[in-house]
Amino acid sequence: MIKRLDHVVLTVKSLEDSLRFYTEVLGMEEMTFGNGRKALAFGDQKINLHEYKREFVPKAAHPTPGSADWCFITSLDSDSLLRHLTALGIAIEEGPVTRTGSLGPISSIYIRDPDNNLIELSTYINE
């Protein structure tokens, strides 16, 4: 019945800090929609941003910055990704390590965003 994921909502402490991180570090595109709402676009998906204590209604029962754990598939191989993150001064939490993605084995590097959400950046090993 479910065809695909369209968007998710991320609750953040600072729209500015989150927009800067996701656009500069991860290469997502900032977009504005509705009545000035902010989102991050990549591929055919987007992440709507809700500022903590100013969330758009309806909302999750307990929206909390720092409670997300994402896995994004990247176009960069692990070595190139490490060089990119290191050049930007981004601390590596773990990796590269082998994990299992939805379509098979992936090589993953873990970092944190400004709200301390865990970000897993991965490449499929057999591609």
TrEMBL record:
Keyword Metal-binding included in the entry's annotation: yes
Keyword Cytoplasm: no
InterPro entries: Glyas_Bleomycin-R_OHBP_Dase (IPR029068), Glyas_Fos-R_dOase_dom (IPR004360), Glyoxalase_1_CS (IPR018146), GlyoxalaseI/FosfomycinResist (IPR050383), VOC_core (IPR037523)
Keyword terms, alphabetized: Metal-binding
Entry GO MF terms: lactoylglutathione lyase activity; metal ion binding
Residues covered by the VOC domain: 4-124
PANTHER family assigned: GLYOXALASE DOMAIN-CONTAINING PROTEIN 5 (PTHR21366:SF14), GLYOXALASE FAMILY PROTEIN (PTHR21366)
The protein, known as: VOC domain-containing protein
UniProt lineage: Bacteria, Bacillati, Bacillota, Bacilli, Bacillales
